[in-house]
Protein 1
Amino acid sequence: SATSRDRLRIAIQKSGRLAEPARALLASCGLSWRESRDRLFCYGETLPIDLLLVRDDDIPGLIADGVCDLGIVGRNVLGEQDGERRNGGREPAFREWRALGFGACRLALAVPESWDWQGVSQLAGKRIATSYPALLSQWLAEQGIAADVVLLSGSVEIAPRLGQADAICDLVSSGATLSANQLKPVETLLQSEAVLAGPAAEFDAVRGELAQLLLRRLDGALRIRH
Ligand code: PRP
Ligand code: ZN
Ligand code: MG
């Protein structure tokens, strides 16, 4: 947008698992900010690089619309929304620029602990609850399995107990949520972590230079961490 033309704007999660590590990583790149009173916008002081604090699910769309230039978001969210765009016949609008090494988790298929898991053919004709319909449908198609995808925006793990689904596909980090719901992971669809996302298209000159500066510092910071 016109107002962000000479400054770079990065969207990060306002609260949640990626919020603090994302900010800490950017701070380790030498960025510092002055927070707005509503704590939704952080004005860059050391460099003209501002932060917008948003819901993680909104980040790919903000990049696609050019409201934000970059974002820190889970690969799972980016992949799902990229899949939705493809399914809708739209061009890719964002892509993963860097893997950031925190927020590791996996998108997994999980079934009731009581199932004797023999393989993916067992999913034929079953109902699978998920918040990731594009990634799940793509995986099912690759496996050659016809199953019903039940879309839930949260609390996916409870669906089998409620009789809404036979199996689920959701993020697994420690595995505690699966265990608490008597489910076991049986297949991994995607290894995920926080990533720096950017547009599929090129920046203009000013923002392109700022983005390159940030990437150089980020790569330095990531090298020190690993
Ligand atoms: C995520 C994910 C799982 C849970 C997995 O949910 O959707 O439910 O974490 O973590 P675990 O394996 O360590 O138990 P989150 O609590 O982030 O909330 P959300 O589902 O509302 O996004
Ligand atoms: Zn979310
Ligand atoms: Mg959850």
Protein 2
Amino acid sequence: MTSDDSTSTGPGDSSAASEEAELRQQPGELVFTPRRRRERPPQHLADLDRAGRREKATALGFPAYRADQVSKHYFERLSPDPESWTDVPAAQRTELCAALTPRLLHEVNRISCDNGTTVKYLWRLFDGSLVESVLMRYPKRTTMCISSQAGCGMNCPFCATGQSGLTRNLSTAEIVDQVVAGAVELAAGEIPGGPGRVGNIVFMGMGEPLANYAATLGAVRRIVSPAPEGLGISARGVTISTVGLAPRMRQLADEGLPVTLALSLHAPDDDLRNELVPVNNRWPVAEVLDAAWGYADRTHRRVSIEYALIREINDQPWRADLLASLLAGRLVHVNLIPLNPTPGSKWTASDPAVEDEFLRRLRAGGIAATIRDTRGREIDGACGQLAAAQ
Ligand code: SAH
């Protein structure tokens, strides 16, 4: 395949960001990379479990049950405006709001398409970092695609987010609040189709969720906990997508959360995957697939394999056959994603006929596979297009 310097960068030198320190550590070797101190995002009730929220309310001089009331307004009534918190004395609302639900996401811009049923939001965080999320309303369900990091340190050359590097990890509440922001608009009937609910969450916005493991898991717990502790969305509706951080995939399997795991494979052979997904140099195809099967065994959940079809790069019939043979007999579904264009990239989507042949070969090999729709493509809101440029 063709190659340029930017595509041969390995994960070891992908980012200087401190959160990546553990990825630079070689097995058996202790590397002490000093963590740069950063100011943390304001603490929010979505960062805490119920006990933590009640403690915080008490520490502020309020009765503990105020925390439950505010949680109900935030997660259940989806009513962030303190003026509407009529069960809280008017004199306490502003202070409780500032302490428990400080504003984390400041809307910079939004773009919509599909008659307003696909909306891409651009948010500014407290420190100026920019992140995006995308709401996609379909006739029978609404999916929020959310970001787990500002930027991304994984360096995949075909992905727009990967081009700018990692800015920082998001906090649990910064992740959860993206879902709540969409849920508030849906509940208020502001998205065409009448009042609705968010049923599906995909961690397929900016960032590598398993590189921000603790905050991502915290967010998943808030998303699936019944209201008013959390949003009460079924874990089966939550998908965590990863480039394949094998140790973290194994750890996720032990959490006892039946979320769907999606593995961004993009190539069935190490030669090519090393280039398309640089972290493969650390955890190669055989190891990430093994971790994926471990996940399926533990959770009984079908693993999704994401495969962006890139013209004359990874779309050859022999690669389809090799992929089918690697996946045969496993609890798996392949999502073929026509490559979405990213600025400055020399790569483009495969021919539709080549796409069809790739799909046909997978199915002939007994593998469940579909071609993913490319919602949001015209607003740069589709997979790999989120770059937070205004
Ligand atoms: N870091 C995680 C989650 C974010 S990306 C991951 O990589 O899985 C969500 C999906 O979009 C991934 O499967 C990713 O590989 C894919 N993707 C990235 N760039 C793309 C592009 N230009 N066209 C199509 N899919 C892309």
